[in-house]
TrEMBL record:
Single GO molecular function: ADP binding
PANTHER family: DISEASE RESISTANCE PROTEIN (TIR-NBS CLASS)-RELATED, LEUCINE-RICH REPEAT-CONTAINING PROTEIN
One Pfam entry name: NB-ARC
GO biological process: defense response; signal transduction
Database matches in InterPro entries: Apaf_helical, Disease_R_plants, LRR_dom_sf, NB-ARC, P-loop_NTPase, TIR_dom, Toll_tir_struct_dom_sf, WH_DNA-bd_sf
Species for this entry: Eucalyptus grandis
Coiled-coil segments on the chain, per record: none
Keywords for the protein's UniProt record, in alphabetical order: Leucine-rich repeat, NAD, Plant defense, Repeat
Domain TIR: 7-169
Highest taxon in the source lineage: Eukaryota
Name listed for the protein in its UniProt record: TIR domain-containing protein
Keyword match S-adenosyl-L-methionine: no
Source taxonomy: Eukaryota, Viridiplantae, Streptophyta, Embryophyta, Tracheophyta
Length: 1265
């Protein structure tokens, strides 16, 4: 089937003329057109011939959404059935969405071909006018579409029904279109300006404030800058992150250099500042710094002191977003630079410039330029980058009244989408009256137009539910009589909210504030009308002062831990219409409060809240006595729908609550057990839909859930003691989500799970299950994930769900997999499993987009892979038994973007499709070098051809210069002698790695390189010039034995990492003057280098190894910021002067310096954690107070006779001395007797050299794009 052109229609309607032409079809068609949706309808009665005509075929192919309207006689039309088959084919091949309407018929009649559908099919069979294959295709199409979720008209009004369909179509179209690019503002110039102000690589502390109107993009800009700084932090000076690849060695290396406890960089981002009290913000910052919760700060001045003490010696990257008061800023950053360690960076965003009064560096962010504004507006108003010709003047006017602000353009564009010209004109006239600076009022026009229930849901989200799981809170709104599915779609379509990929509710902080201001305005003019109170202090005041009214529907409370005020019945008495109550107990302690009973409190004080539907109780009250005496009293909260109580106290009786109407119960992190009395009381919860028992660590068996027939979600994630799932689970016919992830002791799943006919998602990751049974009853299962189940060896999915989209069996023992016909599967992950061959019938997986088989023992790839037309990614690295040729059929995969075939035995690569963007190939034996000249879209290429052949047979790589989109290239080819002359034309190339031992001449490189790694022992040139690589941040050169000079090093102003290894002819003088940003310098096996020149003020790491003639080190001031200093085998080095300035030094290693006589006084090295000295036979003394030293190793320093006094070693934990005769005599004296306690044999002392060489290697390898 030919790939469709870009859609010119958006919706295709398929219908049976006599049934619906003048009914629902006509109403829907005109409603779609009126909403600005390009719809196509065709009357099947007007067609002739036996085949679908080309115009109709093209309309189906081009439409994004396909809507068959099933009526009683739909199947009686061969044309309708032909269209339906075509629609199913388009869905499976190109991903179009089918949204069926069941007009006057049940979905089961379509699915199972009963009643009129069965008769129609039988008549086709009886007349024998069509082949059996044609009829089977019709039946299959009816079955597939009948199983899809759609709309049933039933008794609903056609007007209301049509509005719902149009709304859903708009949402789907918008989602589809905006996925291309959700944010069009050109941020590059602003980012560059902020990075310049903040001094990205500077060792100075900088604080920058970004100010501008709400909705202009301040948070987006700040996050981009923060992430760039964070990226550089993790790559450059936070050493613990450099070592992430070293697994079990990490802790040991970090112990060596002390980075875990001292001088590490802290990264922290605080948002929602506008709605958070100062003390809470201080607590959050302190907790983030410590990496754990500490004693609560209750006094602002105390918080300031603690923050200053914690951060004054640390390098911090801090983002404070949407700061609304200067007092809050002062409480968090105090006196500015002096509160933070050297090199710290602080970013502040605010709408109020006055907040930044004492901030020296400021940047104002204004709106977008006109062209980008019009483009963004058009995307939301017309789902196009440009407005239609007749709407150009009005669109330009809209951009003007929106003040070029991205948020306003998005909201107003969405509000006007699909409306007629008159509506546009009226709306824009209203907006013109509003001053440009009053953004909130402009956006209010959209909010005010909401229907009552949509507005209620919007205001609930503004006040309470940002970040919540939409699937869960929707149940609460349903219980209030709202229609959340419909109204959430409305809010999305109007761009007032977004639902993230993780199903979380999100909205812009300005929209949140507008919603809250709306509530506050009502409360200001009519205090008794305020409906929601989200501020803890205001809520506390309302209750204590008894100012509550019947209009208050939602309240957030936080108990006062100082006064220990626990609200009383009369304080709740006036809140008779309360439907939402959120309580934060914090660290409330009732230890000294006599006769307090939590059970009694609930039954007394909440009995007057009959309309309460949502109760969230955060933590439990400490030292609260157990009591059961009130169990016989009337149950409280008879209308409760949502109860969330983390760390539910085991003494508290669930019987205090009425659970008759409960829909969601969340008892995560509680100590409940399988014999908990509350399970019996829970049986009355007939309407329960969500049961969350995450990390209930004492739960060994799930309760009997047979009475919860309506349960839709069961979450048991992280219940590490769980060993049994009760067989009653099979009776949950409505269960759609089951999470058993991390139940590490669970070995078996009950056979009764086959009865979970509605289940769509099953998570079994990191359990101990040994097999997945043959569950034929799970017909709707879409996600099955069982990764890292190390004991799982059997999985038979034949006959199971044909709806499966995602199947993950990575890290299992499965060697054979039978999966049947999974035509809907999108991703298959078999990595690190024991699979020996790909599943049978894999060619039927027509929708498969991602195939992961890395680390398996597969021996070949089947040619049937070429039939998977939608495949986008094949990940097959580290398949060491995979040999032979890649099937040529892969070249047919026109959507293939990513192919990973490193560390395999593949010997030949066929011509690959032009769609490729990422290609990774390597082979330790001979592999024919592929011709990749047709891959014009390639961005990342790894080509590793390690085998050696005569140079005259070396492969030609002349095609590389034509890959103009290439951003990263790693090339290993030891037989390569030259590179193409047009290599420097790869202007987008940022990262280049060349492992070419026989390369004779280094060509001119692309000038935009950020990272260059070069290994070339065959290089014949004695000098190379790199001065033109001004953007270079990482440079590594190895094994260039003839190379005497690297010209232009001093011009590489952005260089942060430099590594020169085994350059046997490198000149005597290495001039690094001007490299102000250099953070890491590694020189090894460069025997002719005599002097390293330059004042490297940003240097963190200096590693000099076996530079035998080195006599002079860089300027002593270079040592001021160094954390790790390792000097080994520099035989002519007499002194290390810079050590007296090394106040940030953490680790010092000096070995094999035969003429070194003394070290400078190390007293200033007050951060030094580890000192290793070895093979320095003339070293006489060590001076200084080493008060932070924890590890000391001295070996083969026979002349050492002066040693710091014992009182210097306040923190010494381990000391090893060997082959130091004179020092041994000193240590025998009485004054050093305390050091004997930490003395250990040399064999027990961790030898850090090998680890640190590896660590430094990893550090330098990270200075890249």
């Amino acid at each position: 089937m030919e790939k469709p052109m870009e859609p010119c229609y958006e919706v295709f309607l398929s219908f049976r003329g006599p049934d619906t032409r003048h009914d629902i079809t006509d109403i829907l068609y005109h409603s779609l057109i009126d909403a600005g949706i390009r719809a196509y309808r065709d009357d099947e009665e007007l067609r002739i011939g036996e085949e679908i005509g080309p115009e109709l075929l093209q309309a189906i192919k081009q439409s994004k959404i396909l809507i068959p309207i099933f009526s009683k006689q739909y199947a009686a039309s061969k044309w309708c059935l032909m269209e339906l088959v075509q629609m199913v084919e388009c869905k499976e091949k190109w991903g179009q969405k089918i949204m069926p309407i069941f007009f006057d018929i049940e979905p089961s009649e379509v699915r199972n071909q009963t009643t009129t559908y069965g008769k129609a099919i039988q008549s086709y069979i009886d007349k024998q006018l069509y082949t059996n294959e044609t009829i089977e295709n019709w039946k299959a199409a009816l079955k597939k579409v009948g199983e899809l979720k759609g709309w049933e008209l039933k008794e609903r009004g056609k007007g209301e029904f049509t509005r719902e369909v149009v709304q859903k179509v708009l949402i789907e179209l918008k989602k589809n279109y905006l996925a291309v690019s959700d944010f069009l503002v050109e941020m590059d110039d602003h980012v560059d300006r902020i990075m310049e102000l903040i001094g990205e690589y500077s060792a100075q502390t900088k604080i920058v404030g970004i100010h501008g109107m709400g909705g202009v993009g301040k948070t987006t800009l700040a996050k981009i800058v923060y992430n760039k700084l964070l990226s550089h932090s993790t790559k450059h000076y936070n050493l613990s992150n450099f070592l992430e690849k070293m697994d079990d060695q990490v802790d040991r290396i970090m112990e060596v250099i002390g980075e875990r406890t001292t001088n590490s960089s802290i990264c922290c981002s605080l948002s929602n500042i506008r709605d958070t009290k100062i003390e809470s913000l201080q607590n959050q910052l302190i907790s983030d710094v410590l990496g754990k919760k500490r004693q609560t700060i209750n006094d602002i001045n105390e918080g300031k002191r603690v923050i200053k003490d914690l951060l004054s010696s640390k390098k911090v990257i801090l983002l404070l977003d949407d700061v609304d008061q200067k007092t809050k800023l002062d409480a968090l950053v105090g006196m500015g630079k002096c509160w933070f360690g050297s090199g710290s960076k602080v970013i502040i965003t605010t709408r109020n410039k006055e907040v930044l009064k004492n901030v020296e560096l400021k940047h104002e962010l204004t709106g977008m330029d006109f062209d980008h504004s019009l483009q963004l507006f058009s995307r939301h108003a017309f789902r196009s980058d440009h407005p239609p010709a007749e709407y150009v003047p009005l669109s330009k006017k809209a951009v003007k009244v929106c003040g070029h602000l991205p948020l306003a353009l998005e909201i107003v564009g969405s509000f006007l989408a699909g409306k007629d010209r008159k509506f546009w004109e009226t709306t824009l006239e209203k907006l013109e009256i509003i001053p440009d600076e009053n953004v909130e009022e402009k956006l209010n026009i959209s909010i005010n137009a909401l229907q009552p229930h949509a507005k209620e849901i919007f205001l609930d989200i503004c006040c309470f539910f940002i970040g919540f799981d939409v699937k869960i809170v929707s149940h609460m709104w349903k219980s209030c009589g709202f229609l959340p599915d419909y109204y959430l779609d409305v809010l999305q379509q109007m761009s007032l909210i977004k639902i993230t990929n993780c199903d979380r509710l999100w909205m812009h902080d300005l929209l949140r504030d507008i919603g809250r201001h709306f509530i506050c305005r009502i409360g200001t003019f009519r205090p008794k009308k305020q409906s929601r109170v989200w501020d803890h202090e205001q809520a506390n005041g309302i209750l204590i002062e008894k100012r509550g009214t019947e209009n208050i529907e939602a309240v957030c409370l936080k108990f006062d831990h100082q006064s220990r005020h626990f609200y009383k019945k009369e304080e709740f008495a006036s809140l008779s219409n309360l439907r939402f109550l959120q309580v934060d107990c914090g660290d409330l302690d009732m230890k000294n409060v006599q006769h307090f009973s939590l059970t009694n409190w609930f039954q007394r004080n909440l009995s007057n809240l009959p309309k309460l539907r949502y109760l969230s109780w955060h933590k439990f009250v400490q030292h609260c006595p157990s009591t059961k005496q009130f169990q016989k009293n009337p149950l409280v909260l008879p209308n409760l729908r949502y109860l969330s109580w983390h760390e539910f106290p085991i003494f508290f009786q669930l019987t205090s609550f009425s659970l008759m109407k409960i829909v969601i119960l969340d008892l995560s992190h509680s100590q409940i057990t399988n014999d908990w009395e509350g399970w019996n009381h829970l049986k009355m919860a007939k309407n329960l839909k969500v049961l969350n028992l995450t990390k209930c660590s004492n739960l060994r068996k799930t309760p009997n859930v047979s009475t919860h027939e309506n349960l839709e979600q069961l979450i048991l994630q992280g219940c590490k003691e769980l060993v049994q799932v009760d067989r009653s689970i099979g009776k949950l016919k409505q269960l759609v989500f089951l999470n058993l992830e991390g139940c590490s002791k669970l070995q078996r799943l009950p056979d009764e799970m086959e009865g979970l006919e509605a289940l769509t998602e099953l998570l079994l990751d990191m359990t101990s299950i040994t097999k997945i049974p043959k569950w034929k009853g799970m017909k709707k299962l879409e996600t099955l994930s069982a990764s890292s189940c190390g004991l799982l060896s059997k999985c038979n999915l034949v006959g199971c769900s044909t709806s499966l989209l995602y199947l993950c069996l990575s890290g299992t023992r499965i060697s054979e997999l039978s999966i049947g016909n999974f035509g809907s599967l999108i991703e298959l992950n078999l990595s690190r499993s024991s699979i020996r061959e790909l599943p049978n019938l894999i060619e039927t997986m027509k929708n498969l987009r991602v195939l992961r088989i890395s680390g398996t023992i597969l021996e070949k790839l089947p040619s049937t892979l070429g039939m998977l037309e939608k495949l986008e990614e094949i990940e097959a690295y580290d398949c060491r038994y995979l040999r032979g040729e890649i099937p040529s059929e892969i070249g047919r995969l026109s959507f293939l973007r990513i192919l990973r075939l490193t560390k395999t035995g593949i010997s030949d690569i066929p011509k690959l499709p032009e769609s490729m963007t990422n290609l990774y190939l390597s082979h330790n034996q001979q592999m024919r070098c592929p011709d990749l000249s047709n891959l014009s879209n390639l961005r990342y290429l790894t080509l590793d051809l390690k085998y050696r052949i005569p140079s005259h047979l070396a492969p030609s790589l002349n095609w590389i210069g034509g890959l103009r989109k290439l951003e990263s290239l790693s090339l290993c080819c030891h037989s390569l002698v030259t590179l193409p002359s047009d290599f420097n034309l790869l202007l987008k190339l940022r990262k280049l790695e060349l492992f070419v031992n026989n390369l004779e001449c280094l060509p001119k490189l692309p000038q935009n390189l950020s990272y260059f790694h070069f290994v070339g022992c065959g290089l014949m040139e004695k000098s190379i010039n790199l001065s033109y690589l001004e953007k270079l941040s990482g440079l590594h050169i190895y094994n260039c034995r003839q190379l005497m000079e690297i010209q232009g090093l001093q011009h590489l102003k952005n260089l942060r990492g430099l590594r020169l290894v085994r350059l046997l002819s490198l000149a005597k003088l290495l001039d690094l003057t001007g490299l102000k940003k250099l953070q890491g310098l590694h020189i090894e096996d460069c025997p002719k280098v005599v002097e390293v020149r330059g004042q490297l003020e940003s240097l963190d790491i200096l590693y000099l190894n076996h530079c035998e003639t080195l006599e002079k080190l860089p300027n002593p001031l270079t040592f001021k910021h160094i954390k790790v200093l390792m000097i080994n085998g520099c035989w002519k080095l007499k002194e290390i002067q810079g050590l007296k300035y090394s106040e940030n030094l953490i680790f010092l290693q000096v070995r094999d310096l035969p003429i070194l006589e003394k070290l400078p006084d190390l007293t200033n090295a007050n951060e030094l954690k580890r000192l290793e000295l070895g093979d320095c036979p003339n070293l006489i003394e060590i001076r200084g107070r080493l008060e932070s030293l924890e590890r000391l190793l001295i070996k083969s320093c026979g002349s050492l006779r002066k040693f710091p006094e014992p009182s210097s070693f306040k923190k010494l934990e381990k000391m090893a001395i060997a082959e130091c005769e004179r020092l041994e005599e000193i240590l025998k004296s009485e004054e050093y007797r305390d050091l004997k306690k930490v003395r250990i044999p040399l064999a027990r002392f961790e030898m850090s050299l090998d680890y640190l060489i590896s660590a430094v290697g990893i550090i330098y390898s990270r200075w890249r794009v």
